[in-house]
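Regression test case RT-17, inverse folding.

Input:
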């Protein structure tokens, strides 16, 4: 994606995202066979609901159709939230990751190497971390400035997460439950329709025998 196209897309989409109190995290255009995929990643402190993504997708689609920013080639529009193991590049990302375990690549000034620790607090200058103990030892506290972090991302965990992380994950579980419920209703409708057709066929057979 060219710089000009990226800037035009951001200029068109950012007001729509901001109107919903969301942050526009990423815009990506990638080839997918004969089509392209325009992926818009949004987020907020409370997470992003499925209906918000759907509504934003409709609004974005209308705005894009009214311009030539995507050119004449066909494309698919995707509006989504960041993955669980998202990279941390902005202050807001670190604030939303409080309570999460992260893996950070440190700069030479901080001793280089990797650091795996849990974020306990965030301010404008850096992070307060809890470094897990090794071989039964107690966790230790550590302070790391943003200037000492070359790159960082959230680490996936399969054990219980802190309360803040649970809140966001619970929202994702609710989304999954809603989708499952819809699928179940659709399945019941399909079964009912199938049974009705079978009943009609049986009635027709009875008429022929009569």
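Golden output:
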């Amino acid at each position: 994606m060219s710089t000009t196209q990226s800037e035009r897309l951001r200029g068109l989409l950012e007001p729509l995202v901001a109107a919903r109190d969301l942050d526009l995290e990423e815009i990506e255009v990638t080839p997918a066979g004969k089509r392209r995929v325009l992926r818009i990643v949004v987020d907020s402190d409370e997470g992003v609901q499925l209906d918000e993504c759907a509504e934003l997708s409709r609004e974005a689609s209308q705005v894009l159709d009214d311009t030539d920013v995507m050119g004449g080639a066909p494309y698919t529009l995707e509006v989504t939230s960041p993955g669980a193991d998202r990279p941390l590049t902005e202050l807001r990302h670190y604030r939303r990751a409080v309570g999460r375990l992260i893996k950070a690549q440190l700069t030479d000034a901080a001793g280089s190497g990797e650091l795996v620790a849990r974020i306990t607090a965030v301010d404008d200058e850096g992070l307060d971390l809890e470094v897990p103990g090794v071989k039964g030892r107690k966790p230790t506290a550590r302070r790391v400035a943003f200037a000492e972090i070359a790159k960082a991302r959230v680490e996936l965990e399969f054990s219980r997460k802190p309360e803040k992380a649970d809140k966001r994950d619970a929202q994702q579980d609710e989304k999954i439950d809603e989708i499952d419920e819809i699928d179940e209703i659709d399945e019941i409708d399909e079964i009912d329709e199938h049974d009705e057709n079978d009943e009609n066929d049986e009635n027709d057979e009875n008429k022929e025998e009569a």
